[in-house]
Amino acid sequence: MPSQLRLLAAFLLAVMPAVANSAWQVVSAETGKRVEIDRSSIRKDENGKSVALGRIVLDKPIVDPKTSSSYRIVQALNRYDCASRSYSTLKRSYFKDEGDLLREEEVKLAIEMPVRSGMLDDKLLREVCRPKPGPEAATAASKTADKVSQAAGELRKANEALLQKEVKRANLQTPAPEKVEAQARQALATRPPARVPDVSPPALLATAPEKHHAGKPHPPAGEGHARTHAQAHWAYEGDSGPDHWGQLKPEYATCATGKRQSPIDIRDGLRVDLEPIQFAYRPSQFRVVDNGHTVQVEVSGSSISLLGKTYQLAQFHFHRPSEERVNGAAFDMVVHLVHKAEDGKIAVVAVLLEKGLENPLIQNVWNNLPLEKNEYVTPPALSIDVAQLLPADQSYYTYMGSLTTPPCTEGVLWLVLRQPQPISAEQLAIFARLYRQNARPVQANFARMIKESR
């Protein structure tokens, strides 16, 4: 009898992991990670919205900056609104491994984010909002398939009749319907593609006034770095590339002659006790624009304070790859947060981005990308918390430099945070489709002093 009990216990231990994991269903898998949903967790809350558990399982653990331990699984409790196609995260849990909890965090401000078709969130939404199959659903699906098949047949007949009519109109001999269809397909295949006009977008800190559509608010005053991207025909390659910026317009001469230009390769800094940057970032409404040189997000109500001076945050935007280098190394991307003080001085906080987990704030921006360049999208019921971009370790490098786009104005205080933040491979790919490369090369140092937190 004891031996039988031991065998039973061994059997239960063997099957328990499979039972524990059986509720997780793979929604997406790619190199290095997979995304899963626990279908057994799907339920309705008191407002009729769907609540479900999802998680990202990494092949290799990464270090958690808040605990200095490693985790491999990030689990999120999300609330989905199937009708409006939106979701918000209520809670996140970090696991060292299966069943080994590292820490949990409640999301204090659950921001409703729209779900865009084709994105990973769209796949999760479909799984959560998909009705459970039953006999009625199977019958309805069968009837729908029959109707689709019938409609497809009728459409094919109509196409054949139309093709024959066109052939007769051209006084051609009418061949068999199958041959007519083949000829039409061949004609479509060999037709040259329509030429897309080359539209050079305008630039960001030029002196001419910026044009706006009637009824649309103007960008925040004093955004400096932000406004350069909308008015001159400069680019990141070719005859209008960085090597030629200084010759494009007299106002851009500093791009070629300046001695305090950015970006630079940050190395050999003086390790000292730098004053901490006082971030006063607050959730606010936002608007997104693709200005032809980058994706830019305008916000209000946030600021930083340093050395007795306060700088208001006007906007942030992205570069790929990072413009800054640290000891010769570049990062996948960088986000520049552009601030301006009352006296007109500019301070830019740079947050380096490297491939890892999905970044919720960046996804919120990507979800609201405008369909046309130089058109603004202002989500009416959404806010954005720029503090989500900041790493836990806010030590930094600092030096005096310039704007990294024409007119390359100098006297800019640069604050480059040392700890990178994550951005997913999917999010990187989205920006790469818009801008393959929009980073100015590193500039000469000219013996500038660089300081870094010790």
From TrEMBL:
A single GO molecular function term of this UniProt record: zinc ion binding
Signal sequence range: 1-22
Catalyzed reactions per annotation: hydrogencarbonate + H(+) = CO2 + H2O
Transmembrane residue ranges: none
Protein name: carbonic anhydrase
UniProt keywords, alphabetically: Lyase, Metal-binding, Signal, Zinc
Region ranges (Disordered): 168-230
Pfam families, per database record: Adhesin_E, Carb_anhydrase
Domain (Alpha-carbonic anhydrase) ranges: 232-454
Matches recorded under CDD domains: alpha_CA_prokaryotic_like (cd03124)
Top-level division of the source organism's lineage: Bacteria
Keyword field contains rRNA-binding: no
Enzyme class name: lyase
Species assigned in the record: Candidatus Accumulibacter aalborgensis
Recorded family membership: Belongs to the alpha-carbonic anhydrase family.
InterPro entries: Adhesin_E-like, Alpha_CA_prokaryot-like, CA_dom, CA_dom_sf, Carbonic_anhydrase_a-class
EC number assigned by the record: 4.2.1.1
